[in-house]
Specification:
Strand order of the largest sheet of chain B: 3-5-4
Strand content of chain A: under 5%
Distance between the termini of chain A: 53 Å
Structural class of chain A: mainly alpha
Number of strands of chain B: 7
Distance between the termini of chain B: 105 Å
Order of helices and strands of chain A: HHHHHHHHHH
Oligomer: heterodimer
Number of helices of chain A: 10
Largest sheet of chain A: none
Helix content of chain B: 40-55%
Structural class of chain B: mainly alpha
Helix content of chain A: over 70%
Number of helices of chain B: 28
Shape of chain B: extended
Shape of chain A: elongated
Radius of gyration of chain A: 26 Å
Radius of gyration of chain B: 35 Å
Largest interface: A-B, 53 and 53 residues
Strand content of chain B: under 5%
Number of strands of chain A: 0
Amino acid sequence: MSFGQALRPKEPRNLVITMALCLVLVVVYLIGDYLQPQSPKRGFGLFFGFLAAFLFIFEMMYPVRRPRARPLKTAKRWLQLHLYLGVIALLSVLMHTGFHWPHGGMGWWLLLLSAWTSLTGLLGVWLQKWIPSSLSDGLRVEALYERIPGLIEKLCTEADTLVADASDVLDRFYRTEVRTSLGKLTPSYAYLVDVRSGRERALEPFRRLGQFVDEEEKEKVDDLMSIYTEKLELDAQYSLQGILRRWLVLHVPAAGLLMGLMVIHVFGWLWY
Amino acid sequence: MARQVSWGTPARSQHYQKLRSIWSYLVGAILLGLLGFLFLMAFQVVGVRGPLSPGNVTSAHANYDTKCEACHAPRQGASNLRCQRCHDTGGGGRLTQGAHVFFGSADARKATSAEGLACARCHIEHRGSSARLSAVDEAQCLRCHGAWRVKAAGQNFRIASFAGHPEFKVLRENLQGNPRMLFSHKRHMKEMIKEGAAGEWDTCTRCHTPQGEARGRDLEPINYDLHCARCHAEDLAMDPVSAQDVKEDTGLREAVGAFNKSGDTIQRLGIRHRDDWILYNIRKLQWETYPQDYARDRAGLEAKISQLQRRIFQAEPLVGIASEGLQERAQALQEEVKRLEGRARSQAVGADPASGLSRISEAVAAASAAGDSDARSRLEELFRQAEELKKAGVPAASLPSEEFEARRRELLSVLDVLAAADPNRQRSVDDLRRRLLALSPGESGRENLERALRQRRDDLARIEDELRLRRSGVAQEVRTLPERLALQRELDATRQQLTKFYTFRGAPPAFSEADRKRKETALKAISGEGAGERCAKCHSIVHGSLAPVAPAKSVMVRAMFAHKKHLIAALPEAGMVQRVVNFVKGKKPTSAEENQRRFRCAYCHDGIQAAGDAPRKPSVPAVQSCRECHQSGASRQDCQLCHRYHPPGVLS
């Protein structure tokens, strides 16, 4: 899957509906702005504030989609709504502010958190489409994230057994060049761009060693190279599956903080 | 066989692999968010309000940056009352939307029914310390006056921009300026040019001095001592009058002067401007010859005093009053509100004015019983008229303003007589005077009552809010209000005028017709009325009443015009097309055009140099002339450049 393909919507109809809704909201905003001076405290400005708040509340219900997915039938629908309503929520926030920069810390927090949460959400959507396809397209090995450390250990054991009665050259090469890196997971963000990133460079020493050993040993080198290739693929699996999980750390705390500040914001508006 | 990288999972798991729950990530993330939230709240608790601040207040409000309660009332937002606490300490309501509507329309009824508008709607705070609160978005003006909401502002024209600005009202309705003085620009300007005034600019500015903008006025007000006395300070003498008609020793310290007595006649010499002796005797003779006019003028002064007293009372800053005093005031206001509510209720269920006239039948019966046929026939006639009135219904149209003013004057005279007859009723009379003055044409008694009720409720709300603020510990420095001092000065001057010149009370003694004629002649001899001499040379005098003068008052009271800026600005050149046409035709500017350019006052006030005594058309250029410079991409053309939302205060 190409980078562009990953940006294609899963449900183009939903994208069209969202774009249409955004357009309607922009028209409403422009009419409101013409009818009376824009203010977040009244009129359409307030309406967009309410809209953003309700949408954010809905967005925060996303984690409970599985046990209570019935109103929306499927988790996919939850995700689609979570995605597109999030975009509308961000637009509502911008229209609530009248497309002006905030003046106080509170305003900045709310605006930046809204933007951050929405953008990290969109990033997550892209990651969820991009990573699985690149893993399946570019790698042979498949493994559950939790099993990868165990599989690495097994590969180490297999490699140790393989070079147990090997020549000094191979043994020294294994101990100095391979063993350390083979025994530990080396995740890298580079796999996000290319799942085979750095593989050729990593396997080059094996190929060079093959020229200096006899035929019998050469087979062992090839096996060792195969083990190392598998390890590299597991590294890629581990890295990308880890990213798929860890992007939530970018998204969820900001969303939680946004909700907390939004409550203060609404309370402040009601009280003051 | 060589080892191959396996497809799929390399090896089977020995046991069931328990997957990590999504919550293990989410809980951590949520906790992180909570931590961030608590971190920000901690800043707020220890007094570092920056991170959660809604924005800095302007530097003028910096003292209240951390005292939200100073401006924000719970569940009400930025309360108008709290703005007024500092900016309208007297609580005169000058800064309200109602005052704005009244300022624009002079219609009390419309002003009363105007929707409220929060100060914070236009003056938006929390936009940083350098923000200008007075800079109001033009869209706020257009919200009511814009092209799409004409009816909202009660206008019959649409303003979308300065290009669509209607013609000035003074020109649209051809309002004649009435300075209530007889003054010939033509004569005075000629004299000045003879004296060596260097052109029109110098001629005009000798009297109309452009003032610094800081004092809120555009041109210095014309003042006798500053502007007129230079030429008109010569001592005048009045025509001799009968000594029995005037009082030689008026008892006024300032009224000492020389007299020329000859037989039964007396003539005062060396008359000065605002001569106390002259003014005293004018009032005396007016009281004797035109008692109604005298009573009206006197009642006007009494009413003014009464009104000023109330304004001074209101102008006392609440912050300077002790809490006990405030509570007493609140109690008194609560009682007054109750009384007014009772009156409003009784008026609401009371009979309409037409049905009230049916009580005439009782008077007819009484006249019949007394055997007074003349009274009976007149009352029957009145009864018939009442019946017709009942059938036709009470006309909704209000009295014409002149008639309304005449009725008001009559009532004021009646009140004056009432107060003179029974000094114990002074307070009631004062109250009635105030209420009478508060009435405006077209306004019914009920509306007036509702307005009073609303004002009392507002006063009460201010006091209650002040008490609430004190309880929450929001202090406010006590400042002496310059407005209050100005009002006090005006009150003192009015009182002095009343006690010096209006000492005659009640009805004058009866005079024979010959005596009356003589006194009338004496009045004219002193004031110069009818002959255009002495006082009447400049002042408009009718039956001894001098109309209060309004010299050099701005013609456009609802807009500001800075003469100084315009006088130093370059005059607009003719357009390119016009210049090409002039060049092709070989046309040179005429001397009149050149003069207009050279003498800048005449550029706008064309024809002023030829204006005589008679009331004339306003010498104001059309709005089109403003557009010569104030156009898109050139000079400013926003509403605030000329207009002000708030009516001017006592000092401006």
